[in-house]
Specification:
By secondary structure, the protein is an all-alpha fold. It folds into 2 domains: 9-92; 94-125, no CATH class. It is 75% helix and 0% strand. The protein has 4 helices and no strands. The protein has helices at 9-67, 70-81, 98-109, 112-122.
């Protein structure tokens, strides 16, 4: 009986060579994936840095624009050197730490059971 399928040596050799080439292409592509991911990540970081620099540039340009006016110059001098015009008065606002220190003293003077009880009640607040 004659063989229904006839394979030649050339066709077999071609199949092996094509399989090896396909395998090498797949290995090369597989090795490119981490590099591709790294380049996308680097690109994203550079885009963020670029946006930061663009924002900084626009802020600096607005500051420069502000310093071209007399009012802007005066405001910058006041902020940097903490000075005022002749005849101006300065007011200093001081926080009252009296309430905070009273609370701290009360907590220091509490007994052991009182601290535990207030801690327990604190869970339900």
């Amino acid at each position: 009986m004659k063989n229904k399928y006839h394979f030649s040596f050339g066709a077999f050799l071609f199949a092996i060579v094509a399989g090896v080439i396909a395998f090498l292409v797949l290995v090369a592509l597989f090795n490119l994936i981490p590099k591709l991911y790294a380049s996308f990540k680097t690109n994203h970081e550079l885009e963020k840095e670029k946006q930061t620099l663009v924002d900084r540039k626009s802020k600096l340009e607005s500051d420069i624009q502000k310093l071209t006016t007399d009012r802007g110059i005066e405001e910058e001098i006041r902020n940097r050197f903490n000075v005022g015009k002749e005849g101006e008065d300065a007011f200093v606002v001081v926080e009252d730490n009296k309430n905070n220190s009273t609370k701290e003293n009360t907590e220091k003077n509490q007994g052991f059971l009182t601290k535990i009880w207030s801690g327990f009640l604190g869970w339900f607040q």
